[in-house]
């Protein structure tokens, strides 16, 4: 089955980020295809490489990046949600005159149309959040 | 992308207090460009999103409720409000904004967008969808 996954909550604050990750791993193990993982609302905080959890805790951001590299996943942060919350890639940094960027490897920033397209192209849209 | 799917956006949260309602509306507006068969449902505290006379001055946040009145222009013409959710909150349809659209198949007659449905009816509507967006 072809899946698009939507993650609506930030890492550590909410289990949705863990559940979405565990679901993605399990779906891939079962041979399902993940068309896209779209991060919305505070979910965009899953994509900042500045995240520094304690060493004895899971690194949710790195975990996404590694999964994306291993399975060639498309991890998309909503641009409007990311701008509000200070998640910036090199292009956004330039465009808005910021002095830094913080997007994590394997993620890209794009529009809400990517979520809609994911819902159209996939057999299921699976949403994690409150 | 010629395929048309039935999209239902389910709005469950109060308009202020969290950003879900505002960012849900942003998905609806962007999604309108994709020409899918779109409906909106308002349940639980989500019914407050459509309350008329919203005044956010004291909160210091933007009152985005006028945007709902523009949904008709985006061809979003089916808005379901759950009857039980309204009643549980002491509200009636008269407490909600009057949302309308112009029906191009009926000489652009102005029609109501909001349909009051029971919980059981909404359950049936949900089952008929291809995609549920949940906010």
Walk me through this protein's architecture.
The complex is a heterodimer of chains A (130) and B (135). Chain A has 130 residues and is of the alpha/beta class. Chain A has helices spanning 16-29, 60-71, 79-85, 90-95, 113-121, and strands spanning 2-7, 33-39, 75-78, 107-110, 124-128. Chain A has a single domain (2-128), classed as 3-Layer(aba) Sandwich (Hypothetical Protein Ychn, Chain: A). Chain A starts with a strand and ends with a strand. With 135 residues, chain B is an alpha/beta fold. Helix content of chain B is 20%, strand content 24%. In chain B, strands 6-3-2-1-7 form a five-stranded parallel beta sheet. Chain B starts with 5 loop residues before the first strand and ends with a strand. The interface between A and B is medium-sized, with 19 and 18 residues.
Question: Which key features would you list for this structure?
Answer:
heterodimer, A: 130 residues, alpha/beta, Hypothetical Protein Ychn, Chain: A, five-stranded parallel sheet, 5 helices, globular, B: 135 residues
């Amino acid at each position: 089955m072809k899946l698009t996954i939507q993650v609506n909550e930030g890492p550590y604050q909410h289990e949705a980020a863990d559940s979405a990750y565990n679901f993605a791993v399990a779906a891939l193990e079962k041979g399902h295809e993940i068309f896209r993982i779209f991060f919305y609302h505070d979910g965009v905080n899953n994509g900042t490489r500045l995240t520094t959890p304690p060493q004895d805790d899971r690194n949710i951001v790195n975990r996404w990046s590694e999964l994306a590299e291993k399975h060639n996943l498309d991890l998309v942060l909503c641009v409007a949600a990311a701008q509000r919350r200070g998640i910036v890639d090199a292009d956004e940094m330039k465009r808005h005159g910021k002095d830094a960027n913080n997007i994590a490897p394997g993620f890209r920033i794009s529009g809400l149309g990517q979520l809609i397209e994911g819902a159209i192209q996939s057999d299921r849209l699976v949403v994690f959040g409150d | 992308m010629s395929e048309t799917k039935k999209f239902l956006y389910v709005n469950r949260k109060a308009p202020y207090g969290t950003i879900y309602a505002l960012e849900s509306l942003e998905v609806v507006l962007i999604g309108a460009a994709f020409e899918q068969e779109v409906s909106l449902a308002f349940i639980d505290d989500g019914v407050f999103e459509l309350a008329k006379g919203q005044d956010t001055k004291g909160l210091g946040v933007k009152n985005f409720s006028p945007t709902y009145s523009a949904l008709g222009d985006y061809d979003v013409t089916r808005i379901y409000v759950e009857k039980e959710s309204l009643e549980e909150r002491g509200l009636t349809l008269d407490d909600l904004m009057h949302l309308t659209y112009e029906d191009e198949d009926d000489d652009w007659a102005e029609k109501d967008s909001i349909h009051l449905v029971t919980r059981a009816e909404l359950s049936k509507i949900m089952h008929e969808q291809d995609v549920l967006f949940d906010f």
